[in-house]
Design goal:
Chain lengths: ~425, ~425
DNA sequence: ACAGTTTCCCGTAAATGC
DNA sequence: TGCATTTACGGGAAACTG
């Protein structure tokens, strides 16, 4: 329903009313898209039956922000629908809750743009949603309110990776509840701080963290300063000398994992982050047909390649296949690509050069359970037509190597 | 900009004012999508300089429709933006024009639905847009207006084929300018009438009409009545005994041609509409490797297959490949699929069984100019990676045939 | 001219209504 | 419940805007 995860369990914090017990609860920043619906759950942590259905809570976008933070130049948003709800008891009966749905925010006309060069990008703007209500208790007028943690507002899904970068950076660098100008003077992060968040991202999309080898390769790409700190601009906008945006690059890989490689990543079959030099070093001494999986370092949209080693006539070669992109893997999953991959050399010799996953696991042992047909039925076939399936082939530019171990790998083996 | 073609050159017809010369101009029905912009061009055919910038024209949706046609039960729409424009002289200076852009129509709340079973589907509802203006001339108050031909309003692109069916049917069956209730009692069409429209559709998307053989095959599918007429319900909703909707089926093929086969269709390389029996008959006597292209008769989304003949040991076999869908052809175009297609049999023998396009044109002569790389450069390759390309293979269920003509078709030939 | 940002819209999926 | 129709929204591209 919402663009990202739902913001649940925001606390309705009682201001200036110690009579009301309140509990800080899990809040998290969020990325919101204009003109799209999202949902916010809200809990009033004191369940006084007498309040039931008496508290009308209103959501306000960027309440008092101009006065509080003087963050001029930010865009202004408003909810287009009436954003009010009445608190009611929840299912377990322990508190009053309201779920805001169908909140739609849209930029209002006025926008005071500072023309100076230090203006932030839209994904660096931080906003808040504040929930306010007032009621009478013990003869007093009580005004209470609660705010979300900072929120980034985008207008197209293509801005989501940048927005998420801001969210991560904010979370790691500060525990302030509402420093909306953080990116006017962005703090730097130490590599231990940053690497932990990055590792969490992989845990989140692929149920497995980054290991030490992977992290040390990433450190090379992310840390430019000799002091071991990472600067916001270098992280989110592409550093000085390098022309790639490291976060966008990593973000593409996270998306690739989420969409096509979740199982393989979870099971640790993807080495992923290895330099080209390291690949050669790792594979050089291994037997012909040993291969490993590695993410492309140049493709900004997330791509994965396999590299394998061949020994012929005392000569050793390590090859890497043209990386598979998301649209490639939509056609057929990586395990099937590995199973069906075919190299061709002069004389009509065809074979699959991929035999053992590094260090020495038989390909079918490692990937067998993921092959098409192993957990699904065979493809539905239309009567009267010969079934076909897509495979990828490469025409080896090198002279024909002799078959490994003196045996030809049969190509006509049936798919499991 | 607009969903379909722009509606240009609508005539501003002068009503009750013979002083104003008016010219009937090309109007065409249109398919409009709610909440989407479209453009209408309007010409005032008398260029009286004195009118310049004095005529304010307003667009009205379904003006006077209820009184005129008593078509209750239709949805009601309104423009959400102010749909008024001032007429100005056009570039050639021969008339006054206005171009309406950003017209957005959205269903208004009220909708009187007749609950009887004869209710029309939304794509059978016909609507009109009327342009009105008034001015003073020769001391008289003049009210003039012009209307579009009937328009079908849809809410999602998936309704477009059905809507287009209505548009075609209307055009062929009547020359009345505004019979919005046509589908309450839809007229039938003779096969010559219908087949001509269908043929035009292929001319429109693929620059080539249907030939007599193709039409005679389609006649079998479309004409159910012995009297040779086609009924609207059987055309647009799937006839009595058959469970396929013939127009949607044909519509999918038209879309397939438009997106992936425009060149091949234009050049007549696709036989397309042939029955399975006819295929066997045609190919039976031809030499091994003769093939033809034919649309799937079962796939509703548009799919194309090739069938080829093989003679082995005095036995003749005709095979048809699993049809290629739009998403298949997005991966690699049909000519490349034909070039790279590979069949595999026991013993690791691989070959391409497609040699001659029916009746006996060498495959590369027929399709060579379309192969990838013939008019584009070779694929851009990332340095350090072995290029790969996708091909389709089939595992022949039959005993291994001997190579045709005693020669092995080399598979390692380089792509042109 | 250009880059950042938003709008537009197809196509698919989900929700809605009858 | 099932089907017809609408809404929602990701993704890519065009349009916008300073």
């Amino acid at each position: 329903q919402s663009l990202m995860t739902k913001l649940l369990s925001s606390a309705l914090v009682v201001e200036k009313q110690p009579v009301m017990a309140s509990m800080p609860s899990i809040q998290q920043p969020l990325v919101l898209k204009t003109k799209a619906n999202f949902t916010v759950g809200l809990r009033f942590l004191v369940n006084l039956e007498k309040f039931r259905c008496l508290l009308k809570v209103k959501a306000v976008f960027d309440k008092d922000v101009a006065e509080k933070t003087k963050t001029n130049g930010f865009r202004h948003f408003d909810f287009t629908k009436e954003p009010s709800k009445v608190l009611d008891v929840n299912v377990t009966g322990d508190c009053l809750v309201a779920e805001f749905t169908d909140l739609v925010n849209q930029e209002s006309k006025k926008r005071v743009r500072k023309s100076d060069e230090s203006a932030l990008t839209v994904t660096e703007e931080l906003h808040v949603i504040t929930f306010v209500t007032c009621f009478q208790h013990a003869g007093l007028d009580c005004h209470i309110q609660a705010s979300t943690l900072p929120v980034v507002v985008i207008s197209a899904t293509g801005q989501l990776p940048s927005a998420w970068a801001s969210v991560m950076w904010y979370n790691v660098s500060t525990s302030e509840p509402m420093n909306l100008s953080l990116f006017s003077d962005p703090p730097r992060l130490s590599w231990p701080e940053l690497s932990q968040v990055l590792s969490w991202q992989f845990l989140s999309v692929g149920k497995r963290r980054l290991d030490d080898n992977q992290l040390s390769m990433l450190r090379e790409k992310f840390v430019e300063d000799p002091d071991g700190f990472v600067h916001w601009n270098s992280f989110s906008k592409g550093g000085c000398q390098k022309n790639v945006n490291v976060w966008l690059w990593l973000s593409g890989i996270l998306d690739l994992i989420k969409k096509h490689l979740a199982d393989l990543w979870r099971d640790g079959l993807i080495m992923g982050f290895v330099s080209r030099e390291k690949i050669k070093e790792l594979l050089w001494e291994k037997k012909t047909g040993t291969f490993l999986l590695r993410f492309s370092e140049t493709n900004q949209d997330g791509a994965i390649s396999y590299s394998w080693v061949e020994h012929h006539n005392g000569e050793t070669q390590v090859h890497s296949i043209e990386p598979y992109t998301k649209s490639d893997l939509e056609k057929s999953p990586l395990p099937d690509e590995i199973y069906d991959f075919t190299s061709r050399v002069h004389g009509n010799v065809t074979r699959n050069p991929l035999l053992y996953l590094y260090p020495d696991v038989d390909k079918d042992v490692a990937f067998g359970r993921y092959y098409y047909g192993s957990d699904k039925q065979t493809l539905p076939r239309v009567w009267g037509y010969l079934p076909r399936r897509p495979i990828n082939v490469t025409d080896m530019p090198t002279p024909p190597p002799s078959p490994p171990h003196g045996q030809q790998v049969p190509l006509d083996a049936q798919h499991p």
